[in-house]
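Supplementary Text 2. Reproducibility record for the structural model of the 553-residue chain.

All settings were left at their defaults, and a single model was retained for analysis rather than an ensemble. We include the record here because the model underlies the residue-level annotations in Supplementary Table 4.
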Amino acid sequence: MQAGILAMAGMISRVIGLLYGSPLAAIIGDEGNGYYGAAYQIYTIVLFISSYSIPSAMSKIISQKLAVKEYRNAHRIFHCALIYVTIVGLLGSLLLFLGANVLVAGRSATVLRFFAPTIFLFGFLGVLRGYFQAHRTMIPTSISQLLEQIINAIVSVTGAYILTGIAGNEDPSKRAVYGAIGSALGTGSGVLIALLFMLLVYYANKKNITRRVQNDTHDIMPDKEIFKLIILIVTPFIISSSIYNLSSFLNWTLFSRILIYVKKMEESTVVAMYGIFTRKAMVITNLPISLASAAAAAMIPEISILFAKGDKEGTSETVSKVVKVILLIAIPCAAGLLFLAKPIIMILFPQRVSIDEAALLLRILSVTVVFYSLSTLTNAVLQGIGRVHVPVVNAVIALVIQTIVLSGLLLFTNITDEALCIVTIVYSAMMCVLNAYSLRKNIKTDTDYKTIVILPALSALVMGVFAYLSYVVVTFLFYIVSRLNAALIEISFKDYMYSSYFVNLVASMISIILAVVVYFTVLIKTGGATEEDIKRLPKGTSLANLLKKIKIL
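Retained model, structure tokens:
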């Protein structure tokens, strides 16, 4: 249930991100997206090192103390964590501001400096989120995520619009940089509002927290031991998460350096290609992956408690259920992105200059939805059972292989941004396989590949083909009507497809709705999912009731 709450909030946040991404891209262009994306990669790495892993780490440490009713020590850990993030957050902010020119090349350094204050603020937000997640409630975190994204969207678009107006149209690169700065200001504003909300939640619960702390009679942990515990637990989280994001940073560094300095391409052209990859195709694939991230965040306290109590059977059962639920969603999402890539891109990012390129990248990246969903879950499970170093080792192995592959593709072939997609598949697949192998050595899981993988994949394939054909049929009907209303206009159906935003939107929505019905029909009729499985999905009970009404379940 808690995973469902966080998953819904995560999905809504991602949808908001996609919706404001379209007008933002129209304002700052692909070049502006590229400057923002390059700066954001560095910001993310520093954020992970300083603060971002704090919620997961705190939820793990504090939940273990709460499980044995050590409320006083749990609260002392909370206070020590605030001191910890104050120090590392300040250092991270200074590093970002003072070292921008070293960390990122070209005009992106200017954008990077505007991310510096956000690093400091996010540490406190992370500790508060982790504290409430440890109490096994995801509602405060979920609401704060929504507030963060809403404010981010409003400030990003408004800031980009105002700053690009100030920059003018004489220098396109200057206009792109100013627009990227506006978007960076939105990120910081969202974090600030989310932090203020979490502080209100904490003070609203302070009376109950204080009462439990005062009634606790357990021995007090010394501060030195608490800080040692925090560092020992947080460090593997940080290293693992940082390596995940270091992957994107290395990709950008190799991509930009090789294409600019070896292949002699213009910086603006390279940055624009990277903007299409990271701020269009990757942003869309991250939407379904957010479900896995939410399930992972909600699962860490549960897994930690079960494993700490020695309940390996309960741990295995929890993992198996979550994996099945995630694959029931991730597999059809990947198929949908594969078959409807261009219609989706046209809805979200209708800038005609880059529609075809963005659609191609999205098709290639679609399979990473499955790989990243699984690797995110297995990463969380390994951390939850105390094998925190294993994902780090696996990430290093995958990173080395990815770097070799990307260097070879860029140096010895003529492909450009497609190479980024290929190595993203390589990295996500490697993490998926290595984590699964490591997990199997520690706990046994019920792996029925037929119902977990094969049947959902076949159902998704049928769904994808049906979705594309229904899209073509609906578009063709619009084409016939338009020819009847304007018989003198000679235009082929091939030219008509994707020529109208409204037609594409209606055809896509109809295709997606029919695709969902087809997927669940095939899945249920072939035995790939039961009523119990459907009810485990976010809003699963409502979905199960709907499927019963239309005689599918």
